[in-house]
## 1
Amino acid sequence: MTETTDTPTRAHRSDRAATAPGLMTRFRALDPKLRWGVILPGVVLLVLGILVGVDVLLSAGRIHPGVRVGTVAVGGMSTEQAATAIQRGIEPLLSEPVTMTVAERSWTVDAGMIGATVESTQAAEAAYLIGRGDSFGAVVGERLKAWFGSAEVTLPLSADDTLLAGLFDSVSAAVAKPAIDASVVIEGTTARLEPSAEGLDVDREEARTALLAAFASGERSVTLELKSSTPRINEEAAQQALKDAIRMLGGPLTLTYEDKTWEVSASEIGEWIAFHAEPENGTPTAVLVAVIASQDVSAAVLPMVADVGKVATDAGFKVSSGKVSIVPHQDGLTVDAEDLATELTTKLKNDERTVELKMRRVEPAITTEVAQAMGITERISTFTTDYSASNKPRVNNIHTLADALDGTLIAPGASFSFNGTIGERTAAKGYQEANAIVNGKLVPQLGGGICQIGTTIFNTVFFSGLPVTERHNHSQYISHYPTGRDATVSWGGPDFKFKNDTDNWILIATGYTNSTVTISLYGTDPGYDVAYKTGDWTNIKAYPVREIPDPTMPIGMKVVEERGVTGRTIVVVRTVKKGGVLVREDSFKSVYRAAEEVIRVGTKPAPSGTTTPTP
């Protein structure tokens, strides 16, 4: 057994030994040049492999020497160091503007205008990958290029597309010749085709690339040529719209609703036809489409058929004896203009000339449910002032203004402005001339008497506890108003304002007689407790007296033409608490100017023998 297993082994070894000398013999028998052709590439590959291995070890964790990002050398750096160096190196380039010239017009563009920034970390990572490819050949090639200084990464500059679009829009507006789309023009009952035309414009992608390249390279100027721009809609794409428009204009239209009919002429139909571009999928072109415009139908048809509709009415509030109730809303009924326009478009294109109106229900802005959610459930405060019923123009103005104020709603957190709510007081609104204090004198003025309402609403708000944000006293003291609690208002001048600081809406309600006006606030009572203290009169100033000679009156006779008013100052302090906790304390200071007294003095000599009259 031992002999049989050993024999084949010895034979195998003998064959291998015999083969090796054979190969060597054949190699030596080769021509010397051929032998070097075999040896030299192997040696070169071996040396390259050793050198690349050493190079890889030397640049481990760092960018290969000789690599540049734009103009910034980053060889031998870590990616973090390279990112910092790139950011620092690009800052001088980004700080200088680039001049962009288009069609002999120039624009100075700085980096901030287009939001130009460099992705320094991205660039550093791209530089690090040089010489670290997947194949041996790529690794050797990239590292050799780096050693010879030709390995470069392009600076990855980016820009804000919105800012760029704005820049190019302004350039196009100045130098471009817009392409003209084919269109359909309607004149009366005739439709015709307007041809398209090519234009010239900036190639925005080319301009973007050129601008960013200029900032990255240090170039400070860019010259761009205008390129031909193609219209979106050519004549072929507008042909169907032309045919549809001609068919739509083919005759009058009859609208019907129940037993009523209305006829619309072809020329009126022409005023309703509109055209819009419908983009073709996957292409920059579009097709022109003829439609009936719903807004034009609404403007023309709704007044025409007003007798078959009904206007929606908001929910309202009714107050009586301090109680408030909701008046339910009323739904409206109107023509469904959008549906009508769609149906007209289809039918008129098919030359169908009779269309039945479709109606739709319309809810008002304030429904009953909305009114219920406003939280207007009780009276918060009320105040009444009185006046003389004999001055008819003044009474008219008070009543007109009260009507204008009645029903005003103030949202939670919103502010009320007297002038902003009422607007200018004009004759067209029903206001008449009545005496008003202007620059310390009583003079006739359109809307005279409105301060009666101003004072009344101020006191209503005063006792509600709500914050008053603007209030002005009259220039002179008026005794029939609450002491120190009057308020003057005028268009273009003093205003009265307060804020609704509650969580619910507030309703202003007014009522009047020939001699009184009452203003109330309704909402959800915030629970404010209001107290006030009226201070003493201070800074009292006597009024001056001016005498005017009157040759029509006898000597010694005096008549008071304008009664003087004493100047004075007073402060009213309001304290507002809730649950015993102070919410706010307000001081309302009123400074009243003195008004001179004017006296007419007689200068007419008395006849001889008569007694001088007693003044």
Note: The first strand starts at residue 68 and ends at 69.
## 2
Amino acid sequence: MKRYEDTALTAEERAEALVAEMTVEEAASQLRYDAPAIPRLGIPAYNWWNEALHGVARSGTATVFPQAIGLAAMFDTDTLKTAAEIVSTEARAKYNGYQKRGDTGIYKGLTFWSPNINIFRDPRWGRGHETYGEDPYLTAECGKAYVEGLQGNGPVLRAAACAKHFAVHSGPENMRHSFDAVIGKKDLYETYLPAFEALVRDAHVEGIMGAYNRVNGEPACASPALQEILREWGFDGYFVSDCGAISDFHAFHHITANAVDSAAIALKNGCDVNCGGCYAQILTAYEEGLVSEDDIRRACVHLMRTRIRLGMFDGGTEYDDIPYSVVACDDHKDIAWQCALESMVLLKNNGILPLDEEKISTIAVIGPNANSRTALEGNYMGTADRYITFLEGIQDRFPGRVITAPGAHLYKLRSENCNNDGDHDRLAEALEAAVCADVVIACVGLDASIEGEEGDASNEYAAGDKRSLLLPESQRVLLRALKETGKPLIVLCAAGSAINTEIDADALLHVWYPGQMGGEAAASILFGDFAPSGKLPVTFYEDTEKLPDFTDYSMKNRTYRYTQDNILYPFGYGLTYGTVLVKALSYENGIASVTVQNPGDVRCDDVIELYLHDNAPCAVPYYSLCGFARISLAPGQEKTVAVEIPTTAFLSVDEDGIRAVRGTQYTLYAGTHQPDAKSEALTGTKCLSFTINF
């Protein structure tokens, strides 16, 4: 037995032994994302690039869960972890099949470049829907749950997660290849790094992906400062560049002269594997003395260590018998439906919801997202075996007549370019449908073709970013016209970010990109089979013109922790059917006890949120989320829930980035929303508070 085959040794020891058997040329070849085989050592070809943001992505059929921002809106880490377990189970099933047939191509491996735990600091950022929102604590809790679900807790990783994009990365998309994110230490350690630290220290995430941008002058994929932070945290996985990021060094950042120089500084500064083509120049860099053999072997050890942890050289793992038949099975789709149901956020309701099907005979379902599969998907997605659109979900659920019309193109002013009718050529049809109905459900919003990553978007928006919070003009015209009919109007908005629909509708349900079961889940809420219970993981602002400059990475006047101005709907806000009252709050030895009651006659599903205000001078101006618990209450039921408050919640960060307990008095708040005036006015309920003295 070769030393690297000895499973009694640590992964580190085995990796070192394996790399010692390689020539320097062989070791260098393994630093490419599409690593070739080394037959004499029994190492098969391996492609590191795979995606699993909300389901196994880009690899054919898979269960498609809600987009990440929707998963965050659940405020339910247990269900999120279950979803991630399903993702990695399907990943293993597909991997097993690919291996049997000798397919080692892209999107066929077990190293998933997910989750995206960047902070959604600005609502204009097109990729924000890939994240878990604006709050560091919520992002960390969701990220940990997803990593733990993907990787499992066995001696062999079920799959290898990767936290991205490290660090300080959230747009603008059209500048990402050349942008320098200038950030102070307070914002860095208070906002941008905590989730990454939690995933490294607590969840033991196997991979870290560097960002495209520079951070305070250093390219994120070759940053001594960022690598030192990872070492301080004890990170012992692999580090990968974002795709093409190393070529940005010479092409856009202009900190190197050519690909050889770029590959050299990336390798010497901690980037183990290159998604892109620059590491084809590693041997040239070695021959020119720009990198050493030790540099090459160190990176290769990190990569072999991950493959060993995945059981790739053990002759078999506990996951080898997972059959392909589990992919997109009914049990998995049931969890996708549950996630969609819990993610949807009811922003407004004048009493029209839930719909009473005995009092209506005809519903008009109108809008460009009504029958759109794309509006269910988000980006970085797999292919569902079946999608249920919003129209189909309503048709399946409602026993009466459902009439439909798109009413408008998603963003173009006309749908048929060959006509002579001018703009808004589908509006008349929609209005005729509306006047025939008892109630109108307008399915509007965006999709990942106009809100997403640079290169994916192809419309009037800026490289995937949004220029404003308004709907495209085609949909704004449609909504205004539907409102003028006088028919009861419910707006169902599918979007991955903050939207100001402008219209004073009777009800507004924000459904994100809810995955393959989104239409069924939406119908279940509309007709009262289940109560809405999602909460906003981001602030919905009124107007982008009142926001700081998009390129300003300071947190001043951004997110609920630093502003209460320009707010349309607050972070943490979301209505349910009925009312949950918080009756009592206490705190002792790190545990908050919250007594809640449902005084009404309908079942209530909701989320208890806990916030902490610190009186230290360097604390955030308002308060920070420090705990949450999902609850379900029968009519008249009262219960007490215990929520652990992490010790990190009591830390404040000064201008030098030093975290410490500085406060002498803390105020703990508990409610179904933030303790702000806007949330209280929208819900008609107040939070309770409890004083903690240090």
Note: The longest strand covers residues 604-614.
